Amino acid sequence: xxxxxxxxxxxxxxxxxxxxxxxxxxxxxxxxxxxxxxxxxxxxxxxxxxxxxxxxxxxxxxxxxxxxxxxxxxxxxxxxxxxxxxxxxxxxxxxxxxxxxxxxxxxxxxxxxxxxxxxxxxxxxxxxxxxxxxxxxxxxxxxxxxxxxxxxxxxxxxxxxxxxxxxxxxxxxxxxxxxxx
Length: 181
Known about the structure:
The chain has one domain: M1 Pyruvate Kinase, Domain 3, CATH 2.40.33.20. It is built from four helices and 13 strands. The protein has helices spanning 46-51, 66-74, 123-127, 132-135; strands at residues 5-10, 21-22, 25-28, 32-33, 61-65, 88-91, 103-106, 110-117, 136-138, 144-146, 150-156, 158-160, 166-169. The model has no long low-confidence stretch (mean pLDDT 94).
């Protein structure tokens, strides 16, 4: 099996749902993606700012696995990297199964720490009607399953580009499962 890779990077200075793909993004330690509307030490997502603007920003960098795009495409939805608002799209890594505190390294320098799951919002259905049910649903036991990616904070700044390998460093056990942040 080949190493996990970055397939796309995206950034937007405005609070829009989708983010345009770029050749490179720059991660800034403790802040997020340079030039992105969600970069900052404290929360930048508008709903979180409205609730408490002093909360720490545990959602500096949003990652989605390209396999999710493949999965929803099989259900008739066309979703490309960046269109669900993610900054980094990966392939070959089950992001949703990672424990909280996992460190992901991109290329030779940049690193993020996984903080939790993205909580999909109704904006997803405004992007493409019916898509929300594909990325959040209840399993057979009634548990809520969120599949719209993971959130992280930047530990080490540096460039991230499509084609960069992704190295995974698991935290010490016991591993804590991801929950929404």
